[in-house]
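Predict the 3D structure for this chain.
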Amino acid sequence: MAETKRDYYEVLGLSKSASADEIKRAYRQLAKKYHPDMNEGDKEAEVKFKEVNEAYAILSDSDKKAKYDQYGFAGVDPNMGAGGFGGGFGGMDFDISDIFGSFFGGGMGGSQQRRNGPVRGDDIHLRVTVSFEEAAFGCKKDITFTRVERCGDCSGSGAEAGTTPERCSACNGTGQVRVQQRTALGIFQSSRACDACGGTGKIIKNPCQGCRGTGMKKAQKKIEVTIPAGCDDGMMLALREQGSDGKNGGPTGDVILTVNVRPHHIFEREGYDIACEIPITFPEATLGAEIDVPTLEGDVKYTIPEGTQTGTVFTIRGKGIQMLGSKNKGDLHFTVVIEVPKSLTEKQKEILRQFSDSCGKNNYTKKESFLGKIFGNKN
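Done. Predicted structure below.
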């Protein structure tokens, strides 16, 4: 049984009236949620990640989206119209690829014609790892990768310099030939790639030695990439026209860069806010104190009030992560944790006993309230 696809809008959780920005925003959220790095070994997440990418590839392209909105999956499936049929239906003899070609500009005939026409270059998917601070403040990184380029020796023609490809005589340069098969239902007619030219419509008698007649060859490329301030782990950056060159004059593909952010030894990121825990002593919590609070830009002084309880959260405004495309920053939240002293001397213990006795019950309202609830329930 053929695999049933989910509606692309359903995959992204959107309605058909969704804007381009809404489509992009939904994709980013779901791509991060199901990213393989975030779901190692989870086969279901891997399937959903591929499903999300497939949906975005169609809905982010205005032409493909228009065809999908009008014809559904048939409008964007390159395999539709792969065969023809005819004869036996009122004596008619026709090629089904012609029917699909009138709707989608292709079918099998269109597929072969595209071999001779411009073809967009492949996108290249890469990863770059940055530190927590580099993601927060932004940075530049050099990346090196392999791409497919037009051969410089033959300018992409595939023919040795000074020569040109010749039109294939077997298919008259169309790149396809028609075949017929007689069946009980009539004569089935279909198109297939020309064996003589491999579907290109051209014969190269003197292949270029640099690319062996393909017109393309692999090459290494090094570029400097700007990681924007506020970039988060798993975010994807599109480097336009940095991917592989297109064929037959087609446009160059993109480099899709996924950013991996290393964890910080102190801070946890919460959106554009950051958070950490800071231990303080019992006297500091009791009497109040000025403490040093670490931030991404260095330590700052902060005064905690007397009587501070363990687990209390304090906030320093504007000391978090810079927001993407803005000069504004998130906040820093730090939680104080009171460290209880160990290995006290007998004299120190005695002082603490005297201190505890002198405090009285009014200084321990939480404890008294808790005990009251316990004994109150018993009564």
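Residues 121-161+211-263 form a domain with the HSP40/DNAj peptide-binding domain fold (CATH 2.60.260.20).
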